[in-house]
Design a protein that fits this description.
alpha+beta; Thiol Ester Dehydrase, Chain A; six-stranded antiparallel beta sheet; 16% helix; elongated
Length: 122
C-alpha cells in the first residue's frame, strides 16, 4: 500500500465520545481516495462511485495523525477500484474499498487515459 496523505485530529473533529467523528473520517477518506484515483489514472476528473463497507477498527483521539494508504488497483474501462486503509501509528483505524469513475466536462463517464510503458497513465 502506498501512503497518500495524512490528517491531524483536532478538537473540532471530535464527537461527543471524545473520538474522531465518523463523518469527518469519511470525508478525509474520500479526499485521500480522490487524490489516489487521480495519481493512479492521470485523469483530471475522477468522482466517487462507491465505497464498500467501512469498518472502523480503532478509535482516533485528539492529536493523533491519521495516515491514509491505498493500493491493489483494479482498472476498468471508465473506473478504477482500490483498497484503502487509515492508520494511527501501527493501528489500523479503518479499511474499505473505493471505486472512482472518470468523467468528461458534462459529468458523463469517460474512458480512462491509457497506461504508459512505465505503468503510469499517459
Amino acid at each position: 500500500m502506498k501512503h497518500v496523505t495524512s490528517h491531524i485530529c483536532m478538537t473540532r473533529d471530535l464527537g461527543t465520545g471524545g473520538n474522531l467523528f465518523g463523518g469527518t473520517m469519511m470525508a478525509w477518506m474520500d479526499e485521500a481516495a480522490g487524490i489516489y484515483a487521480h495519481i493512479c489514472t492521470g485523469a483530471p476528473r475522477m468522482v466517487t462511485l462507491k465505497f464498500t463497507e467501512i469498518l472502523f477498527k480503532h478509535p482516533v483521539r485528539e492529536r493523533d495523525r491519521v495516515d491514509f494508504y491505498a493500493g491493489n488497483v483494479r482498472r476498468g474501462r471508465t473506473s478504477v477500484t482500490f483498497d484503502m486503509e487509515g492508520r494511527v501509528g501501527e493501528n489500523v483505524v479503518f479499511k474499505t474499498t473505493g471505486t472512482f469513475v472518470c468523467i468528461d466536462k458534462k459529468g458523463r463517464p469517460k474512458i480512462l487515459p491509457p497506461k504508459a510503458a512505465d505503468g503510469k497513465s499517459a
